[in-house]
Amino acid sequence: MRGRLCRRLLTLLVVLMLPLLTATAAERRLTSVGSDTLGELLQAWAQAYADGDASLRFQIRTPGSAAAPAALASGAADLGPMSRAMTAAETADYRQRRGREPGRVRIAYDAVAVFVHPENPLHELRLGDVARIWAADAACGGAGATRWGDLGAGEALAAQPLLRLGRNTASGTFEFFQQAALCGGGYRADVVQFPGAGAIVAAVARTPNAIGYAGLGHVNGLVRVLPLARDGEAAVMPDAATVIAERYPLARPLYLYFNRADDGRPSPEVAAFLRFALSARAQEIAVRHGFVALPAADVSQESGQLQ
Question: Measuring CA to CA, how many Å separate 279 from each of 192, 246, 295, 299?
Answer without folding.
Answer: 38, 23, 11, 8
